[in-house]
């Protein structure tokens, strides 16, 4: 795994501290060994004495009126404690949602998608709960389906949500459009006249699942004060709390939430799944209730990545300068809004890619349909756009007879570029350099199986261990792509994180405790928070308090924001604690050394030192006999604004991040099988706080992009709107045998506006890996390939 790191630029307020285990070191994750050995406790492992098991009954049809529900047989079963339907909900508020509260806790007279929750059961054994749910009789009267743009926007289209009163309703041309965002800049019609070549494309992006390995699960425990304690795997504790408390009819302080072990997320845990259901059953039975989805139910229990249709037009002059871009992006949001409005904002504002194009005409919409609800997934609208605009770049380069990398570099944005929204890119944007690095990397040897003799490994060939070829009909292809992703919440959202830090002496040694509500979903935030505390406070012993709602919100573990935002909150709070320490030190020792009053002082290695390295005192001596220093502070990034609803203009994003990929593939053109040999990547991370974690995030994101390129897609029957492959037998994800070598080239070009100069990094590699693989397959086969994932029949012409 190759790495090439360098830093350009000086970030603000960087503490030069060399305490062991601080920022910049690849310290090991505290949960890593436990997870590898199987000892880590995930949410599905939780247990409580005398607990019941919850089960959800879901709709078997995608759009129907509920004529009747008969729960009598289920209630009569031995071991069943409670059966709940919509009529049993305790509060006036019966819906929830991230932005638009359009999702019913349980279906109210109508189901809008396959797998919608209709009833709940609590029983003393999980099998009893499942059998009881199966005995509930529901009479459905099926209704006409809305499954695509044509059926959603027809003049006589059934309305998925009648009488909409949300804040987007007045700005959309049809009630079945969740949100619409145009972006207009320059004059496309005039720019088109300057174009020597014009290319068009229609692209289809399939519905991808987050495919986290730990299913949705949690434990709700009723409390003596009439409230409930909920232990759950989620991405945003406080957002869950804001949605849960109103439908339970409880004040927020009576719903106490604690993060339990999370087995992956990738956006799929931003929305409510079983949280409300477990609490309802616990309060109804006055017993602890545990809910754990099986894999089949998990496919219905969370949102997915939006499938999309994308229509693009680009023009360029004969010397390779892009003249204009026009596009329309249609995202299928499914039955409920979830994060669709924000995904539309991302898709539209990032649809131009990391290129300088002055004249654009962009429209992005998300539809309400009867398909499964879609929302957040790693890359959040930018993934679909990148797939399309990168295919367009290859088309333009081919039509001009130019090298595809050189063409991209010629049009690459840089620091100072103006985005289509009018926002100036005010931090490094090394797009051309990233492309140069992936192109300059040596290619892996060709047709290695022919020179390996008896040691030839069939796993290196398309088809792998199925032994379908020994190289006959196998063709190599190489493809490139680069993408742009925003970091943090955008469009005027009040995005903040909170951190509480406590510093005290325990057994003669200074110890720091960091308490946030950040959801650790595998990204390594708990590791980085400890590193920041060691750096800023100069201590080696740092305890990470379990995440819960007894501290202020940390926002969502999404949008590549947590290291920037909650890391920033930990840094700021530690700095304030450090100032308190120095105040005590000046009070106790100020008369003994003039540096206490004149020098810039740091905490390093358990001591107070000057910026010149002179030791003034032991930290433990200063804190001895003092009360613990305990502070809780919020951190906000610089403000953003909402995009104009007519022109799309506005400084809507906090930060941009970039990644490039080069894919090398071997394609069996006779059978349509693909082996991805290598996926080399280069990415600017601003500042690597933990290089081991950085490389892991980049390789993980790259692998998810590979999956949607060649295998991952939720198949929804267009005639019934039912999911056809809700299992890991039929929904395929990359295994270790499918995952190629992923060399990582890391740049560290500091963003002066960010803590430590860092740049959010978790999502960017998911963007460009997909179109790079598609470009390589196109080069190998000569096929246009405008749909993802690529299936064998698309390569063999046997569709």
Q: How would you sum up the major sheet?
A: 7 strands, mixed
| Amino- and carboxy-terminal Cα gap | 38 Å
- Tell me the overall shape: globular
Strand content: 15-25%
- The overall strand count is 30
Query: Which secondary-structure class do the elements indicate?
Result: alpha+beta
| Helix content class | 25-40%
Count of alpha and pi helical runs = 19
Provide the spatial order of strands within the biggest beta sheet. Answer: 4-8-2-15-12-13-14
Query: Spans of 5+ residues with little confidence (pLDDT < 50)?
Result: 1-15
Region (Disordered): 1-30
Domain Aldehyde oxidase/xanthine dehydrogenase a/b hammerhead: 37-144
Protein name: Xanthine dehydrogenase subunit D
Enzyme class: oxidoreductase
Describe the structure.
The strands form 7 sheets. Strands 4-8-2-15-12-13-14 form a 7-stranded mixed sheet, with helices on both faces. A 6-stranded mixed sheet has the order 10-18-17-16-11-30, with helices on both faces. A 5-stranded mixed sheet has the order 1-29-28-27-19, sandwiched between helices. The model is unreliable at 1-15 (pLDDT under 50). The protein contains 19 helices and 30 strands. β28 (673-684), α17 (691-710) and β29 (744-749) form a beta-alpha-beta unit. It is an alpha+beta fold and 799 residues long.
């Amino acid at each position: 795994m190759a790495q090439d790191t360098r830093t350009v630029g000086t970030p603000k307020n960087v503490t030069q501290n060399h305490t062991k285990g601080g920022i910049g070191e690849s310290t090991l994750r505290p949960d890593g060994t436990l997870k590898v050995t199987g000892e880590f406790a995930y949410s599905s492992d939780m247990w409580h004495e005398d607990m019941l098991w919850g089960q959800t009954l879901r709709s078997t049809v995608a759009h129907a009126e509920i004529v009747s529900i008969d729960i009598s047989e289920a209630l009569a079963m031995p071991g069943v404690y409670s059966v709940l339907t919509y009529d049993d909900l305790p509060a006036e508020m019966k819906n929830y949602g991230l932005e638009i509260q359009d999702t019913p806790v349980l279906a109210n007279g109508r189901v809008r998608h396959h797998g919608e929750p209709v009833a709940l059961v609590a029983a003393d054994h999980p099998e009893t709960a499942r059998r009881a749910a199966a005995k509930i009789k529901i009479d459905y009267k099926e209704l006409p389906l809305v499954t695509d743009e044509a059926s959603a926007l027809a003049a006589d289209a059934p309305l998925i949500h009648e009488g909409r009163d949300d804040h987007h309703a007045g700005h959309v041309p049809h009630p079945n459009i969740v949100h619409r965002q145009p972006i207009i800049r320059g004059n496309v019609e005039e720019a088109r006249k300057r174009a020597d070549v014009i290319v068009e494309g229609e692209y289809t992006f399939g519905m991808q699942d987050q495919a986290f390995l730990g299913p949705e699960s949690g434990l709700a425990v009723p409390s003596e004060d009439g409230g409930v304690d909920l232990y759950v795997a989620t991405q945003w504790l406080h957002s869950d709390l804001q949605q849960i408390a109103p439908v339970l009819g409880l004040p927020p302080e009576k719903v106490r939430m604690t993060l339990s072990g999370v087995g992956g997320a990738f956006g799929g845990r931003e929305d409510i799944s079983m949280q409300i259901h477990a609490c309802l059953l616990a309060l109804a039975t006055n017993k602890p209730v545990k809910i754990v989805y099986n894999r089949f139910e998990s496919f219905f229990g969370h949102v997915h990545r939006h499938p999309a249709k994308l229509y693009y037009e680009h023009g360029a002059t004969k010397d390779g300068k892009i003249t204009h871009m026009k596009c329309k992006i249609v995202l299928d949001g499914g039955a409920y809004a979830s994060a669709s409005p924000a995904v539309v904002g991302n898709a539209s504002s990032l649809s131009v890619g990391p290129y300088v194009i002055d004249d654009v005409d962009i429209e992005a919409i998300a539809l309400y349909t009867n398909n499964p609800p879609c929302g957040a997934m790693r890359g959040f609208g930018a993934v679909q756009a990148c797939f399309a605009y990168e295919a367009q770049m290859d088309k333009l380069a081919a039509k001009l007879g130019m090298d595809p990398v050189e063409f991209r570099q010629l049009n690459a944005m840089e620091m100072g570029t103006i985005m289509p929204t009018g926002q100036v890119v005010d931090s490094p944007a090394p797009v051309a350099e990233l492309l140069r690095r992936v192109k300059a990397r040596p290619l892996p040897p060709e047709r290695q199986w022919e020179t390996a003799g008896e040691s030839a490994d069939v796993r290196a060939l398309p088809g792998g261990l199925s032994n379908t070829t020994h190289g006959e009909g196998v063709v190599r292809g190489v493809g490139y792509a680069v993408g742009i992703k925003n970091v943090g919440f955008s469009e005027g959202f009040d995005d903040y994180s909170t951190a509480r830090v406590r510093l005290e002496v325990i057994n003669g040694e200074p110890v720091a405790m960091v308490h946030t509500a950040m959801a650790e979903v595998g990204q390594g935030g708990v590791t980085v928070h400890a590193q920041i505390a060691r750096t800023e406070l100069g201590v080696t012993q740092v305890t990470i308090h379990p995440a819960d709602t007894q501290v202020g919100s940390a926002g969502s573990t999404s949008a590549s924001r947590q290291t920037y935002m909650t890391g920033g909150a930990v840094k700021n709070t530690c700095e304030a604690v450090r100032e308190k320490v120095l105040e005590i030190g000046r009070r106790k020792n100020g008369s003994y050394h003039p540096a206490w009053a004149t020098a810039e002082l740091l905490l390093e290695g358990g001591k107070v030192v000057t910026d010149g390295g002179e030791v003034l005192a032991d930290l433990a001596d200063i804190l001895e006999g003092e009360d613990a220093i305990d502070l809780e502070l919020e951190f906000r990034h610089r403000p953003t604004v909402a995009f104009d609803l007519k022109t799309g203009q506005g400084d809507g994003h906090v930060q941009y991040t970039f990644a490039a990929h080069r894919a090398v593939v071997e394609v069996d053109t006779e059978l349509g099988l693909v082996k991805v040999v290598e996926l080399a990547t280069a990415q600017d991370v601003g500042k690597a706080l933990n290089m081991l974690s950085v490389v892991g995030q980049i390789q993980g994101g790259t692998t998810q992009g590979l999956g949607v390129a060649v295998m991952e897609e939720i198949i929804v029957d267009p005639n019934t709107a039912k999911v056809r492959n809700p299992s890991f037998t039929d929904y395929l994800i990359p295994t270790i045998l499918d995952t190629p070598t992923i060399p990582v080239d890391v740049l560290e070009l500091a963003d002066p506006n960010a803590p430590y100069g860092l740049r959010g990094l978790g999502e960017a590699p998911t963007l460009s890996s997909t179109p790079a693989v598609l470009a390589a397959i196109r080069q190998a086969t000569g096929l246009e390939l405008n749909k993802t994932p690529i299936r064998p029949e698309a390569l063999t012409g046997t569709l």
